[in-house]
């Protein structure tokens, strides 16, 4: 760094952020409220201030302060800004971050209090022949995971546990399982130490483990990298994306544009509050923060400046990291206007839907927020947004628990939810029974009461009623009948999920029975509670469920009837919801005359029930793919190896389901694809 103050020259007002130029580094930052802005250059080793340079007034273009500093080497400085005035006074603000910073330094190892500084990374990366897999909608299966929790457990067997590199080592497992897309919980830089609660057992601070408190929207989470040096996190994440694509697996990022880590007026001053508070946050008439997210602040997503920021951010992750799409957390916030009320036609969503850079990328909305907005089926989609289908989640859970009226609801859900998405393809419905937020599938069959005491909130956080059923005993048990029923419930849940119309999604570990001990809000549990225990697939119960799920995924992949974008023909059996009568739902391919037609029957009552399958298409006969009441190993068959059924009548055991497929008669000798062979992870 030269000792003399460098001569500066006007910069480019777009793109915003810091960018290496031929003769130095250009800086551009937007603020409609600042009268003056200073660039603060810092020493990378410790953040000590090296120099502060005021942006000359003549270098301001509209609301953008832009200048180029010649002679700067990106490896020899970190940077930030000061502005005046700012919400704390008329003088210069503390040093703030560049909201467009492509890397944030100063975070340290996981669990240490960060001293964030903006950095200019080396963006060179050899993508080779990388191309998006572009998995057809009917073949998409989303696997939701937490980067750290996926391989942090000592039993993961990877060289760099809890990192992007560790996840990359598990790609062969993802291929064996048969998923075609991973959805990562937030990987934009966040502060995991930002949690006010402490462990009731030890008194130690609890982390913000999930990461829904973004600090740097353009920067990858550095503590998820094995290489935390300059440029390391970004390069490691890109290697992960490139390797996933080479394996035919897409990657979707869970992004949080509804609130930021700044909180309300009591929170940390990071960037937006100092640069233009009213443009970036919803404020009440008295200037207080509207808290529609239960986090302290709410992003003013439809303000022109914030809309531009969000679009620039999404384009950055597509162009710089080659990601295949986004899941928008609490997306109903993105429909709200300056007064906090939902808008009929929010401009942000139209901009995202029509953006040419984002064309072809998957857009998935969580169509609710913490202030009561519930837009499942009514989210402003512009023909581009799919939805996390919470009605599907609730319908399946209620059916599995034997709730009155649940068969009729289930019939609509497994058909692709035509009542919610009329005239739209079934792929707009992302079907799930469990996700990161709530009970795992194993806990859904084990607990009716949440066990969240470890979160330090008196056990009152999380959803009080998850429509779960403990199968007759609360918590773990050695009773063989209850254990068998719980295993059957898990198989039935997966069979329904993976034969429903729409895009199936499930969280990592459900495929081998991962439990969180009844904690249904494990956002603060960086512990074995949240980590995947890789010994489970090697237990009898874990191995049996893994084999069943793997065969269901192979069956879905090999069965075009399950890929169709039209809603299926489904009905609840006559009298299914009549008081104490067993609850049964029957559904089939909507073109049952075709070979490969599928028929599924599910029964959630006690005792047995006899069902009659419809006539198989001409030249075919029904073959039994799955019976969730059958012994392990015979509960599901490899595609092409399903045994022929002797007749049209079938007996369903209590709380079970069967799936049939129409195969030509006589059945040709099967030639299973190697990908369908069973293997323990």
Automatic annotation (TrEMBL):
Which Pfam family would be a valid example here? CBM_48
Q: CDD domains, per this entry?
A: AmyAc_Glg_debranch
Keyword field: Hydrolase
Superkingdom, natural source: Bacteria
Molecular function (GO) terms listed?
hydrolase activity
Q: Which family does it belong to?
A: Belongs to the glycosyl hydrolase 13 family.
Name the chain's protein: Alpha-amylase family glycosyl hydrolase
Natural source organism:
Streptomyces johnsoniae
């Amino acid at each position: 760094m030269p000792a003399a103050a460098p001569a500066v020259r006007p910069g480019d007002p777009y793109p915003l952020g810091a960018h290496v130029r031929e003769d130095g580094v250009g800086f551009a930052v937007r603020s409609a409220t600042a009268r003056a802005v200073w660039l603060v250059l810092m020493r990378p080793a410790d953040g000590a201030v090296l120099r502060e340079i005021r942006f000359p007034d003549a270098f301001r273009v509209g609301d953008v302060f832009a200048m180029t500093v010649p002679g700067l080497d990106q490896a020899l400085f970190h940077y930030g800004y000061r502005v005046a005035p700012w919400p704390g006074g008329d003088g210069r603000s503390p040093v703030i971050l560049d909201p467009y910073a492509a890397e944030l330094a100063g975070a340290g190892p996981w669990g240490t209090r960060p001293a964030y500084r903006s950095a200019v990374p080396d963006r060179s990366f050899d993508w080779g022949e990388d191309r998006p897999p572009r998995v057809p909608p009917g073949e998409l299966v989303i696997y939701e995971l937490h980067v750290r929790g996926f391989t942090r457990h000592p039993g993961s067997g990877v060289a760099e546990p809890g990192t992007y590199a560790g996840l990359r080592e598990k790609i062969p497992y993802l291929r064996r399982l048969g998923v075609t897309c991973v959805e990562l919980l937030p990987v934009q830089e966040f502060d995991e130490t930002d949690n006010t609660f402490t462990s009731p057992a030890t008194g130690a601070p609890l982390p913000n483990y999930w990461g829904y408190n973004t600090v740097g929207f353009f920067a990858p989470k550095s503590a998820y990298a094995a290489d935390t040096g300059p440029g390391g996190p970004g390069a490691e994440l890109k290697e992960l994306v490139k390797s996933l694509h080479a394996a035919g697996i897409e990657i979707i990022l869970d992004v949080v544009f509804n609130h930021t880590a700044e909180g309300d007026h009591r929170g940390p001053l990071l960037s937006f509050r100092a640069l233009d508070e009213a443009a970036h946050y919803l404020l009440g008439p008295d200037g207080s923060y509207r808290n529609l997210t239960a986090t302290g602040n709410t992003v003013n997503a439809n303000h022109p400046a914030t809309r531009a920021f969000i679009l620039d951010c999404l384009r950055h992750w597509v162009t710089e990291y080659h990601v295949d799409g986004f899941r928008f957390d609490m997306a109903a916030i993105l429909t709200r206007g300056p007064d906090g009320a939902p808008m009929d036609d929010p401009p942000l969503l139209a901009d995202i839907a029509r953006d040419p850079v984002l064309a072809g990328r998957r857009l998935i909305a969580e169509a609710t927020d913490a202030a009561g907005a519930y837009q499942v089926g009514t989210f402003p989609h512009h023909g581009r947004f799919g939805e996390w289908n919470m009605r599907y989640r609730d319908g399946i859970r209620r059916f599995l628990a034997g709730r009155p009226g649940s068969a009729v609801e289930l019939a609509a859900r497994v058909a692709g939810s035509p009542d919610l998405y009329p005239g739209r393809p079934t792929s707009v419905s992302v079907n799930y029974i469990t996700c990161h937020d709530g009970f795992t599938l194993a806990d859904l069959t084990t607990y009716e009461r949440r066990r969240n005491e470890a979160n330090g909130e008196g056990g009152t956080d999380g959803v009080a009623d998850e429509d779960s059923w403990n199968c007759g005993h609360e918590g773990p048990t050695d009773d063989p009948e209850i254990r068998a029923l719980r295993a059957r419930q898990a198989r039935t849940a997966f069979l329904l999920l993976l034969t429903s119309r729409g895009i199936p999604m499930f969280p990592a570990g459900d495929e081998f029975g991962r439990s969180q001990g009844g904690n249904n809000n494990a956002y603060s549990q960086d512990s074995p509670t949240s980590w995947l225990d890789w010994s489970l697939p090697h237990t009898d119960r874990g191995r049996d469920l893994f084999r069943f799920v793997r065969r269901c995924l192979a069956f879905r992949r090999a069965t075009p009837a399950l890929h169709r974008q039209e809603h299926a023909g489904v009905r609840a059996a006559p009298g299914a919801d009549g008081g104490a009568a067993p609850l049964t739902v029957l559904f089939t391919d909507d073109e049952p005359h075709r070979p490969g037609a599928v028929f599924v029957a599910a029964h959630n009552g006690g005792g047995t029930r006899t069902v009659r399958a419809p006539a198989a298409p001409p030249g075919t006969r029904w073959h039994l793919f799955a019976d969730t009441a059958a012994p392990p190993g015979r509960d599901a068959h490899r595609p092409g190896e399903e045994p022929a059924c002797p007749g049209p009548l079938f007996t369903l055991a209590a709380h079970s389901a069967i799936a049939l497929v129409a195969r030509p008669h006589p059945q040709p000798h099967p030639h299973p694809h190697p990908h369908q062979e069973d293997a323990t992870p």
